[in-house]
Amino acid sequence: MQVSSLLTLAPARRAALPFAAAFAVALAGCAVTPTRGPSTSNATPELSTQTMHAYHGRFSVRYVDQNGQTRNAYGNFDWQQQGDTVTLQLLNPFGQTLAIITSSPASATLEVPNKQPVTADNVTELMRRTLGFSLPIEGLRYWLESSPAPTSHAKTITDPQQSSRLKEIDQEGWTIEYLAYADAPATGVKRLDLTRAAPPLAIKLVLDR
């Protein structure tokens, strides 16, 4: 499957995706300063104090596994964020739960159907231990709200056609491209792509909210 086929439902024979492939998308705010070019900034402090965010949508991911093979996966996701705690449920295209990841500043837990939960001090350690790579769940807490994370410097580029919206964020080795925003009266990001060069990883997200 090509990553670009995000919006195409898979036939039944593709439903049995390997768990590691689907889990690869277990992913790791809106105030922006209008500019006409690249800038460096951090997220506004107000964003981190917001207590609840929920996102529902579809994902497509391309990554290189521990054997050096390129893998593709896709499905649906449900993201629930309360304060500093994120609960991410991954589902296959038929709605069956593949994994549930809970991440907080104190610990992280990974649950797989019919298996005992696995815990670690943080979500990065947990994913490295179980999959051999990690994903930017902490960054996504802010990137999903069209804002750089407050933990490090970032380069931002605004949309030349609408300066109140971000077109791109470059932060912590990731490039986040905002391809679509919801039409009024809805608000927020509709589609975004995330890419990382090393180790290579490409994620496409469509938010149905």
Essential attributes:
single chain, 209 residues, outer membrane lipoprotein receptor (LolB), chain A, 12-stranded antiparallel beta sheet, 12% helix, 43% strand, globular
CATH class: Mainly Beta
Largest sheet features: 12 strands, antiparallel
Kindly state the mean pLDDT as a whole number?
Answer: 78
Structural class: mainly beta
How many domains make up the 3D coordinates? 1
- How many β-strands, per DSSP? 12
Number of contiguous helices: 4
Helical residue percent band: 10-25%
Protein name: Outer-membrane lipoprotein LolB
Membrane topology: Lipid-anchor
Main location: membrane
Family: Belongs to the LolB family.
Task: Give structural notes.
- Strands 1-8-9-10-11-12-2-3-4-5-6-7 form a twelve-stranded antiparallel beta sheet.
- By secondary structure, the chain is mainly beta.
- It is built from four helices and twelve strands; from the N terminus they run αβαββββββααβββββ.
- The chain has a single domain, classed as outer membrane lipoprotein receptor (LolB), chain A, CATH 2.50.20.
- Strand 11 (189-196) and strand 12 form a beta hairpin.
- Mean pLDDT is 78; it is low at 1-49.
- The relative contact order is 0.20.
Question: Summary?
Answer:
The protein has 209 residues and is mainly beta. It has four helices and twelve strands; from the N terminus they run H-E-H-E-E-E-E-E-E-H-H-E-E-E-E-E.
